[in-house]
Amino acid sequence: MTHMFNYFHQLNLFRGKFMIRVIALQPAIKTQTIVTVSLLSLVLVIFLAISASATTTSTTISSNLSAVISLLTSNGTVTINAIPTGTGVQTIASDTVTVSTNDASGYTLKLGETSASSALVSGGNSIAASTGNQTTPIAEVANSWGYRVDSLGGFGTGPTSAVSSVAIGALKFAAVPATASPDTLKTTATTASNDTTTVWYGIAANTTAPNGTYTNSVTYTATAN
What span, in angstroms and rounded, lies between the C-alpha atoms of 204 and 206? Predict the structure, then answer.
């Protein structure tokens, strides 16, 4: 015998809960099943799903770039040959110092003697350094040598030009200082790319100086600020 069933649902809200009543009816039997779903649990599940879709975070990327600096000179050797006369002659030649740095604070360029001696030396003979300094340079006198940088310290604007065995002029020169207390040639305040400084060297000599090849070594130091 086939039984016919009738179903209907009742939805009630009671004390914060959904109450879903499912009633199955038969001709001779009446059964009812009640399914209760927590309203609070349902709302919480929906809220968590919405919140998860809006979560954000952030990361900081950090890279430290070290300061680097390079230093070059145009010659490596500055030649100031002279043919002396009784009254004295002067020869002047230049060296170009080139500095590059990525330091945002720039660099400082200094000049000092490489060794303890400030004289040009040839065997047992020597030509003394100028008695002038960067603050108070002086015109060269016979049998002396020195350096100058136009518009620096007390050197004056120049302009200095290369000359060979000419009469001693009025341009002012200074002695290259000792290694421990070098002269500052330039200070900058930003990055530099192939920034140049021209350093002039001059010798004055007369026939009282013995012939020979006279040499001295100087050191440039470029330091990132």
Answer: 7
Tokens representing 27? Answer: 């001709």
Residues near 90 by Cβ (< 8 Å), separated by ≥ 6? 82, 140, 163, 165, 166, 167, 168, 169, 202, 203, 204
- Tell me whether strands 138-139 and 172-173 are parallel, antiparallel or unpaired: antiparallel
pTM score of the predicted model: 0.75
Identify the burial level of 176 via C-beta atoms within 10 angstroms of its C-beta, where 0-12 means exposed, 13-18 middle and 19 or more buried.
Answer: buried
The domain limits of the chain are: 6-52, 69-224
pLDDT digits (tens, 9 = 90+) for 167-217: 999 999 999 999 999 999 999 999 999 999 999 999 999 999 999 999 999
pLDDT digit string, tens, across residues 135-144:
999 999 999 9
Lateral strand order in the sheet of 6-14: 6-14, 17-25, 30-38
Amino acid identity for residue 44 in this structure? L
Q: Considering only 51-65, 66-80, 116-130, 181-195, which range has the smallest mean pLDDT?
A: 51-65
